[in-house]
Amino acid sequence: MLPADLPDAGGMSREYGALVGRLRTMVRLGMMAPEPGEVGTRYSLTESGQKAYRTFPAGRWDPTRPVGAFCYGTAEVAGVVRWTEAAEGLGQVTTKVTYLRRLREAASWAEDAELRRQFPYVERELATRTAPAEDSLTLVLASDGWRALGR
Fold first, then answer.
1. The pLDDT of residue 24
2. 75 or 63: which leads in pLDDT
């Protein structure tokens, strides 16, 4: 979650060094700005960063707390591979769908080579523009149609 306060660390661990490297990359791309904090450096969103940053409620990715993330593209379903027969259980009708997804468009800053090195999942997602990735989710039948479970 942002802003993030990081203490200045002399002998950084590898994990801490990687975190600082990722933050510095976002600063270079104009998404974040560093400023002196009480015990180190505070990294805050810039105007450009605010436009791309989203906060997701607890349970979406982490069951215990909200998660913040930079949105760098628009995904779309490229095709349905298979699905299970709809079944009723616990008062719901569900099916599991396996589909192909791809990134339809990406923000220009997401193309940065250093960003792609610092955030390997961005590299993998950008690759789906030409080679869609297989994924799956559970759908629940609601009064207004099929809905992704938990979304």
1. 93
2. 75
- Going from N- to C-terminal start, the domains of the chain cover 1-71
Residue 21: CB partners within 8 Å, gap ≥ 6?
A: 118
Are the CB atoms for 68 and 57 separated by under 8 Å?
A: no
Asked whether the CA dihedral 124, 127, 128, 129 is positive or negative, the reply is positive
- What amino acid is encoded at 7 in this protein? P
User: 116 is written with which tokens?
Assistant: 């792609």
Q: What is the Cβ-side half-sphere exposure of residue 119, based on CA atoms within 13 angstroms? A: 20
Q: Are 116 and 122 in contact (CB under 8 A)?
A: yes
Q: Is 70 exposed, middle or buried (0-12, 13-18, 19+ CB in 10 A)?
A: buried
Nearest Cα neighbor of 118 from 2, 9, 31, 7 is 31
pLDDT tens-place string over residues 30-47:
999 999 988 889 999 999
Contact 126, 106 (CB under 8 A): yes
Cα pseudo-dihedral 2, 3, 9, 13, rounded to 10 = 0
From the list 48, 90, 64, the residue with the least C-alpha distance to 1 is 64
The amino acid that residue 57 corresponds to is P
How many whole angstroms from its chain centre is CA 110? 12
